Amino acid sequence: MNIQLVPLHYVYLAFIVLIIAVMIRRRDTTIICVAGIMTIGLLATESLTGSVSGIFNSFIYAVKELISTIFIISIIVAMSRVLIRTGINEVMVAPLTRFIRSPQVAFWGIGLIMMVVSFFFWPSPAVALVGAVLLPVAVRVGLPPIGAAIAMNLFGHGIALSGDFIIQGAPKLTADAAGLPVSSVITASIPLVIVMGVVSTFTAFWILRKEMQANHTNTLRNPVTGELHVNPTASTSAPETTPPSIEQQPLPFIWKRVFALLIPLLFAVDVILMFVLNLQGGDATALIGGTAVLILIAVTLVAHRHTGPEETTSYLIEGFQFGFKVFGPVIPIAAFFYLGDSAITELFNNPLPDGSHGIVNDLGVALAGLVPLNDSIGAITLTLTGAVTGMDGSGFSGISLVGSIATMFADTASSAATLTALGQVAAIWVGGGTLIPWALIPAAAICGVSPFELARRNLKPVLLGLTVTTILAIFLL
Question: From the record, what ranges are coiled-coil (predicted)?
Fold first, then answer.
């Protein structure tokens, strides 16, 4: 599999390294991403006007790719605002407080529920379901919003999506590319997914618990008044993107009880319909979003009565303001990384050589061609290749490639299945929504935390998990 690398590939790789370095320093990457888009546009079109136009067009492309996520987050936020304002949220989550009584139980409970729902419907609609219901309970018992986001992210976009044992979209793509039965890839992936999940989630929880203990130590209580005073030198998490608290809107308790029962019931019906009608991905998200709009309208009309139509619009405006505020910083960086996949062909009239599968996938193939063919090097290479192809934030765009590369390193069908599963796990954990900021926006937005902060928190657990999983794969080969 010979791929010709051209200057576009090297320039793109240089900007990736620069962006990662800037992210590690926790500085904003917008200007660098714009510079990268313009430079790639200049090389692709050999025209200054073409490269300048490419900046705007790449932003439009990124928005089109992200619009369904922007909408579902905005609508869920709008719905949650009216539920909080009317007090329905308090009544709705009250029964759950009997079971979720500590931050530890909240972390593992949210994570496991997220994982189970994601196995059946994929993580995007699962985030909306789990976050809307369980986040208020988790925060009430002391779990920081960033902790809830980490749990939903690692268990949903990590464990559930990388295994994809029920829907089997990911293993089918990798198995077809490797020329293997889907069942063999699924079987080979089970120990890898388990080890990756255990290492990453326990590491994330251990780091989170240490931070919570440190924050608790730095919280001082006045022995006379009983007031809490936070030590100004104590470390704090990244600023949250949740809007300020909303004024309460009085609602008779009977209506609170009615809606507290009706809303979970409607979402439960959605889950049943997803299963019966085989709705997945975007279709499942659309069903959740439509249901949330109807709930928003119904609650607002009952709570505000004569001003209900106007208040409905106000809640929607607030939701969309929140959504675009959250996604605003992400669009430039997403626009740059989308150029690594199909966007460059659409925006710049296919400047890559014949046989190219996109900049990122070409770099993955080139990486595989630089190393000797043996089991240990093969496992490391598949992990790196999967991670590189996941840099576009999709997770799925490069997993066919890792299946093809796995066959180059494999001596037997069993080792091919293990290598294929390893590449699949690496690609989806990196690109499917645990490390690439715009891919993990759903969990970050629902929990009201910065996606860049969430990606930073996930970095150590995920990298440690990938390291341990790769070592396991070497022993399994």
Answer: none
**Residue pair 44/8 in contact by the 8 Å Cβ criterion:** yes
Whole-angstrom CA distances from 279 to 54, 81, 173, 412 are 36, 27, 19, 37
pLDDT tens digits, one per residue of 8-42: 888 888 887 887 777 667 677 789 889 999 999 89
* CA-closest candidate to residue 340, choices 106, 92, 84, 16: 16
Burial class (CB in 10 A: 0-12, 13-18, 19+), 9: buried
Helix, strand and coil content of the chain, in percent to the nearest 5, comes to: 80, 0, 20
Question: Concatenated DSSP letters for 158-192?
Answer: IIIHHH-TTT-HHHHHHHHHHT--HHHHHHHHHHH
Nearest C-alpha neighbor of 94 from the set 40, 136, 45: 136
Does 295 reside within a domain?
yes
Domain annotation covers residue 197: yes
Residue 10 lies in a domain: no
Closest by alpha carbon to 477, among 380, 350, 392? 380
Report how many domains make up the chain: 1
Query: Is the CB of residue 164 less than 8 Å from the CB of residue 437?
Result: no
CA–CA distance, 187 with 425 (Å, rounded to integer): 13
Q: What are the backbone angles phi and psi of residue 351, rounded to the nearest 5°?
A: -85, 0
What confidence tens digit (pLDDT) does each residue in 110-169 have?
999 889 888 876 787 678 778 877 888 888 888 999 999 999 999 999 999 888 887 677
Domain of residue 257 covers: 67-167+190-217+245-327
- Collapsing DSSP to helix, strand or coil, 408 comes out as helix
The answer to the question of residue 229 being in a domain is: no
Q: What's this model's pTM, rounded to 2 decimal places? A: 0.68
* Tokens standing for residue 200: 């990453």
- Say if residue 231's pLDDT is above 60: no
For residues 110 and 129, give the distance between their C-alpha atoms in angstroms, rounded to a whole number.
Answer: 11
End-to-end CA, the chain:
23
